[in-house]
Amino acid sequence: MDRDEKALARGMFRLKVHESDGQAFEDLFVAIMQKANPDFIPIKPQGNIGDRKNDGYDRKNGRYYQVFAPEDIRKSRSEAVKKLKEDFVGLKAYWDKIYRIREYYFVCNDKYKGQFSTIEDDLASIKKEHRLEECGSFLAKHLEDVLFTLPDDIIISIVGFIPDPAKIELLDYSILNEVIKHILQHKRQLDISQALKAPDFNDKIKFNGLGPRVSALLNNGSYHVGVLQSYFDLNSSFTKQELRDTLNEMYRNALMKDWAENSAEVNRSDLVFFDILRSATPNDTEATQNAALVVMAYFFESCDIFEDPDHDEDQ
């Protein structure tokens, strides 16, 4: 699959996650884990003894999973806390005697909304009390990451037939536009603590020959990257990498353009910057442009667009 097809496949997977509750999500989880790990064994309930609180495990590594997939995760905090505590007791009582529990994961279909802090606290307590090597949440974003490590034919078998992106005129499936919408939907209050402000941020601006106007735009965008980071926290690492690749491709394409006919009053680096900004902005509204600047500031600081002043020193 090319990048557009993978972005479309990701959108189809997210829709499947949002539509899957209860057993449907557990089936989705099991299907992906079996493809990703030949040592993963799903446990089906058996009569009145059930599955003894084990929805699937890798006995070679002592890794156990329990699945929780309510219809509305935000309304199920107390249910989640109760299930976590009671199910681990049942899991420990039976399975630890057969294959020692070294790792435990509470699989939750959070529908990309994040985990409850109380669940994280309880998982930390379980890890400490039972001396586990690993113990944590396994959310929708983690399942997505596992899926996109698999071969294309397996991904297609999970999400279904992927139409040709070139033939889709009205559907907006790009991750960049999804991120822009996320930023627009959140209040972008100025917060000094959110600014990237890495020591070399302004050094990089000078190194790349960017003018004062561009410098002001990048610095302003850097004060709002916390909104973008909140998006990354709730989504897969595939999402962040795809967005990084998109911005880097825009930068490389801008570098290849012939700027010789442009006014000498605007330097080449600034022209490259504004070319990326135009490419990253779905429409011409000021709010959308400001959201795109937040994305550009983030990837400017991480050296995914424009050049790193320390690059030559590292070679």
Poorly predicted segments = none
Query: Number of DSSP helices?
Result: 14
Strand coverage percent: 5-15%
Helix content: 40-55%
Strand order of the largest sheet: 1-2-3-4-5
Question: What Rg, in angstroms, do the CA atoms define?
Answer: 23 Å
In one word, what is the shape?
elongated
For the secondary structure, the number of strands is: 5
Give the helices and strands as they follow along the chain. Answer: HHEEEHEHEHHHHHHHHHH
Instruction: Report the average pLDDT across residues.
Output: 85
What structural class do the secondary elements suggest? alpha/beta
Largest sheet: 5 strands, mixed
The assembly state of the depicted protein chains is: single chain
Distance between the termini: 33 Å
Number of domains: 2
Which keywords apply here?
single chain, 315 residues, alpha/beta, 5-stranded mixed β-sheet, 5 strands, elongated
What is this structure's SSE topology?
Layout lengths: L2 H17 L3 H14 L3 E3 L13 E3 L4 E6 L8 H19 L7 E6 L8 H13 L4 E5 L1 H8 L4 H8 L15 H10 L16 H7 L4 H11 L2 H10 L2 H19 L12 H13 L5 H16 L9 H4 L1
Parallel strand pairs: 3-4, 4-5
Antiparallel strand pairs: 1-2, 2-3
Helix pairs in contact: 1-6, 3-4, 7-13, 9-13, 11-12, 12-13
